[in-house]
Amino acid sequence: MFTKSFTFITSLIITHFTIWSNPIDSSIRPLKWNDINFLSTTDTHGWYSGHINQKQYNANWGDFVSFVINMRQLADSQNQDLLLIDSGDKIDGSGISDATKIHGLKSTPIFVKQSYDILTIGNHELYLWESSKQEYEAVEKYFPHNYISSNVEFKLDNGTFVPFGSKYRYFTTKNQKKKVLAFGFLFDFKRFNEGTKVTPIKEEVEKKWFKNVLKKYEGKVDLIVIAGHTPIAHGWPEFYHLHSHLREYYPDTIIQYFGGHSHIRDFAVFDNKSTGIQSGRYCETVGWVSIDLDEKQLETKDRFSRSYIDFNLDSFHTHSKKVKSFDTEKGLAVTKLVAKTRKELKLNTQIGTVNTNYYVDYVPIDHPKNIFNLITTNVLNDLPGSGERIILINTGSIRYDLYKGPYTIDSQYIVSPFENKWVNLTIPKSVASKVAEKLNDASYITTIRLKPPHHYLKKEIVSSELIATEVTKKLSKGYVTHDDFGSDGDDTPHRAVINFDIPNVVQSVQFENEEESYVDLVFYDFITPNIKWALNELNYEIKDDVKPTEYSNIYLGCGIIGDPFIIIAESRFNCDPNCVAYVSTFVNDELAELYCASNDVKKFFRNGSIGCAFGKLLEHIIDDDEML
């Protein structure tokens, strides 16, 4: 599964694609500055290296640090304020955040190099107690005053629940001297670990502390800021419930929301003095909002301005009005830290080369370049096991496209970062055959987000008429976002892409015949509640205390970073010494020799996870002479 020679592609990390980056790109739409201005991120999920195989998002976290420093200087020179906001979800999405036993162990020291004014927590920091503990400790050390979690709490050793950071923040801006009251909220997340607690927004706003804060600062606030890991879409009610409550105390105050969670670019008008922005995902987007704080009556579009900045050097250079002097000492140090961390985690180790792109939803589900088509036809059937079975995965377990170019250790985490375990229920064939159909017919509420997040509140689907117009301009493919202000928010004009619909789940059916018998229904443990719901809907009774069984016991659990499981099928072939040396850094020499001697390279799964192996996939996309 590893190449015979281990060439680290460090140059890809520190190269800024200067050939592609123009001095000042005149095609980029300028930002509108005003009294107070905001840059915002959300759902970064550890993409601090930038998108190595996508020049459209070629900036890394060090570049972003330099960008913010330069933009702050520009704001100061204009006697305007600039605040930086993050809305949570910093892990589960790339090797730099997930190739450690505790996700974020190596990526958190990179993230905290950015000087955020307000930030809050996401649901991915709450699945595991170890991640929550790490987040809490990082907050105390790096953001003791700026981190706000109004409805999320952490349990101390003595059993007391305390907020991550503070429940609110009240401060005065640097230049305009405006008084700001800020809160941070998470949506009604149910799967938090036992060492944390999430209170629904509708319940938190009724608590005494919240009402006391609102009363305390009446008449003393120029602007309310809400940083939330919650969608701002009109179809998602939580922020709107909060908004109606705030308006009871502050009927005329300007309120700006910063949302997250659904991985889309979006801008919503709450009322004539309140808007919200959502800044995409995966370091593809930096959101921009500027606000005229003048007390006179203004039209909403005159008071507020919004832009979605592409996360690349062209945009960063253009908006900061700096090219040759763009890099800062701090930014360059962060870029070096990113490269150093990638090398430590061996993320640049090239497994092979992807010869074509495979997409989550840019092509229909049955298209040869659709990644789910590839998985169901060429990957799932090689999951170790025997007998008749259906193997089913939720489409949300695949988080990103697989792009042409080097296929590295990092690529495996990018495509599917989750350490899901394979489990199974042995049930009648006639019932098992109907589970996927039932789940794909189910509503959003009953499926609990089985799809990728951006498929629940899509904003980038465009008409064929618009696509034809954009094609004539010979633009690069990218976001063409439609929001409450129109379709001119993306700072870089693009040729629109379509997000084709995808089902909640896909499956590989492996039956010998149609005769009724008991078969294994194999799935990720994460979606066990959904499977039980579907079986109940099909009138097949599964008692609440019945748990699926682990599907395979042939995984060799190793102490490797990320706790992968290596499946050894053959051990009679010569080993490449580089492979043995590499794998031996994670496991004992005997297991390393067994693994590297394996000729059956397709049988490699980390925690049984398709996305973190893609063994059979690699057999199709990598030349044979590149494989051991």
Task: Provide structural commentary.
- It contains 20 helices and 26 strands.
- Helix 14 packs across helix 17.
- The longest helix is centred in the first third of the chain and has 17 residues, at 61-77.
- The termini are close together.
- With 628 residues, it is of the alpha/beta class.
- A hairpin with a 2-residue loop joins strand 11 and strand 12 (274-279).
- The chain has 2 domains: 10-15 and 25-343, Purple Acid Phosphatase, chain A, domain 2 (4-Layer Sandwich), CATH 3.60.21; 349-455 and 501-567 and 603-626, Alpha-Beta Complex (5'-nucleotidase,  domain 2).
- The radius of gyration is 25 Å and the shape is globular.
- The strands form 7 sheets. A 6-stranded mixed sheet has the order 6-7-9-10-12-11, covered by helices on one side. A 5-stranded mixed sheet has the order 3-2-1-13-14.
- Residues 1-23, 459-472 and 553-628 have low confidence and may be disordered.
CATH class category name of the largest domain: Alpha Beta
CATH architecture of the largest domain: 4-Layer Sandwich
Q: Which geometry do the CA atoms define?
A: globular
Strand content: 15-25%
Average residue pLDDT: 82
- Count of helices? 20
CATH topology of the largest domain: Purple Acid Phosphatase, chain A, domain 2
Please state the structural category. alpha/beta
Physical arrangement of strands within the biggest beta sheet: 6-7-9-10-12-11
Q: Note poorly predicted spans.
A: 1-23, 459-472, 553-628
- How many domains make up the coordinates? 2
Report the strand count: 26
**N- and C-termini, Cα separation:** 6 Å
In CATH, the homologous superfamily of the largest domain goes by the name Metallo-dependent phosphatases
Radius of gyration in whole Å, from Cα? 25 Å
Percent helix range: 25-40%
Largest sheet: 6 strands, mixed
